[in-house]
Amino acid sequence: MTATTSARTQRLALIALCLPFFVVQLDATVVNVAVEAIRRDLGGGLGGEQWVIASYTVALAAGMLTAGSLGDRYGSRRICVLGTVVFGAGSALCSLAPTLPVLIAARTLQGIGAAALLPCSLALIVRQFPEPRARAHALGVWGGIAAIGLATGPVAGGMLIALADWRAIFWVNVPFAALAIVLTCRYVVESPPRDRRLDPYGLVLGTVALSALAGGLIQVGRSGWALPLIAAGVLAGVAFVAVERRRRDPMLPLAIFSSRPFSAASTAGLLFNFCFYGTLLCLSLFLQGPLHQSAYATGMLTLPLTVAIGIGATASGRLTARFGARVPMLTGFSLAGLGAVLLAAADSLPLVVAGGVVLCCCSIAMPAMTSVAMSTPPEEHTGLASGVLNTARQTGGALGTAVLGTLLSAGSTMSLSVPMTVVALGYAAAVGCTLLATRRRPPAASAVREGR
User: Fold this and answer.
1) How far apart are CA 152 and CA 360, in angstroms?
2) How much is the mean pLDDT over the chain?
3) Is the pLDDT of residue 79 over 80?
4) b/e per residue 210-223 (b: at least 16 CB within 10 A)
5) What is the pLDDT, as a whole number, of residue 330?
6) C-alpha of 120 from chain center
7) Are 177 and 91 in contact (CB under 8 A)?
């Protein structure tokens, strides 16, 4: 194989692994501008609208640890392709859904497929690009494309609804999924399978904990089941930790969190998605509610946000290569916090758009954050580490949608002030996590202790 052919194969492999992640992230936010059209067609109130979004993110978050473990055991490419097939099938079912419960069930199936492909695609990138500089570049592209997918969702959703109807936002996933399957099978190198036993107890308890907690937060103020669900989620979470401590081959080896950079970067990822997913939902509802914008207008108004995301994600790789991960992470989270403050005080359309643009500079932080997290685990645990990182992020997304959506509608009228204040505090906490993740140990510490 010539150098030119090898470089072409690597580029196509990277496209194959980035393409499904782009669509997965796109689907996490494309529905935001469609919820009003879905409600008019299929019925349901704000709680139903939140479940159309949360059913996807909850299933996505709950399945990724298992998917990472399955990828390590059976081969990441095999699980990635299987997940892409399930995601495409779930998308087709969403477009055909006759009722709201059927749509929510199909969205859950989408989330399960996304949970299988997302951590495995990241693990495959780590294996496909073993050279550190090439790997850093590939991770930057992967993270940047994901951020663009998140921000492109509202724009694409608004255009598709205007040209057709809300069902089109799901049909468009099918050809992308088919192309990703073909490219992955042809150009991506399979990872060697490893002997790891499954952990059904961890799977069940982790899924129950996340699902019950997110469901309870969505139902706060709307149902008497809210507090029991939250309590069940907390108890299941405690039981999950207790079981994982005692199992010989746990789904989530808690020792992985002994690495300070990994733990802090994963926590930053949770905060990132909590704030970002929740903000995009709040902006969509606020624009279509108090500001009386159509779905198409809402999509067009978020176009500057998409541009900011693209510029930030592109700049992140160059900043990381030149200054390390700390500078882009601190820059991205600080600008995002400033944007949240502007949005909290926004009372007009220009201020909402301006605040959203500044907040979307958070994309500067995401590729660098991923690079920090994936640089610490050993090669045999790349699938698991990817699953942990992405589970943390998608858990944040599910909780952000539930919490911030509820805070937006908590008063007699919709207001951005309370949810955006929470977002500003979340990004401030992410700055603290960044300082922990990128802090270097004093190089001479051991020498001082030994008297050298």
Assistant:
1) 12
2) 81
3) yes
4) bbbbbbbbbbbeee
5) 93
6) 14
7) yes
Max Cα distance, the chain (Å): 75
pLDDT band at 450 (very low <50, low <70, confident <90, very high): very low
| Tens digit of each residue's pLDDT (9 = 90 or more) over 151-165 | 677 778 878 888 888
Q: Is 438 helix (H, G, I), strand (E, B) or coil?
A: coil
DSSP string computed for 170-225:
HHTHHHHHHHHHHHHHHHPPPPPP------HHHHHHHHHHHHHHHHHHHHTTT-TT
Q: Could you tell me the pLDDT band of residue 221, with boundaries at 50, 70 and 90?
A: low
Is the model's pLDDT at 209 over the cut of 90?
A: no
CA–CA separation, 12 and 125 (whole Å): 12
Q: How many CB atoms lie within 10 A of CB 195?
A: 7
Residue 113 Rama label (left phi>0; alpha psi -120 to 50; beta) = alpha
pTM: 0.72
CA-based radius of gyration for the chain? 21
Closest-CA residue to 122 (of 328, 320, 391, 349) = 391
Residue that the structure tokens 């733990």 belong to: 263
Q: Which amino acid is at 25?
A: Q
Q: What is the pLDDT at residue 18?
A: 85
CB atoms within 10 A of CB 228: 13
Q: pLDDT tens, 333-362?
A: 999 999 999 999 987 889 999 999 999 899
Report d(CA 105, CA 97) in Å as an integer: 9
CB 87 within 8 A of CB 56: no
User: Residue 219's pLDDT is what?
Assistant: 65
Least trusted range by pLDDT, from 10-24, 44-58, 242-256, 258-272: 44-58
Q: What is the spatial distance between Cα 270 and Cα 57, in angstroms, rounded to a whole number?
A: 13
Other beta carbons within 10 angstroms of residue 201's beta carbon come to 16
CB 276 within 8 A of CB 149: no
Question: C-alpha angle with apex 371: 366 to 373, nearest 5 degrees?
Answer: 95
Closest to 176 (Cα-Cα) out of 18, 56, 23: 23
- Please tell me what DSSP assigns to residue 414: -
Q: Which of 269, 272, 18 is nearest to 146 (CA)?
A: 18
φ/ψ region of 290 (left if φ > 0, alpha if ψ in -120 to 50, else beta) reads: alpha
Q: Which residues contact 353 (CB under 8 A, 6 or more apart)?
A: 301, 304, 305
Average pLDDT of the residues in 252-277:
86
The phi, psi pair for 137, rounded to 5°, reads -65, -45
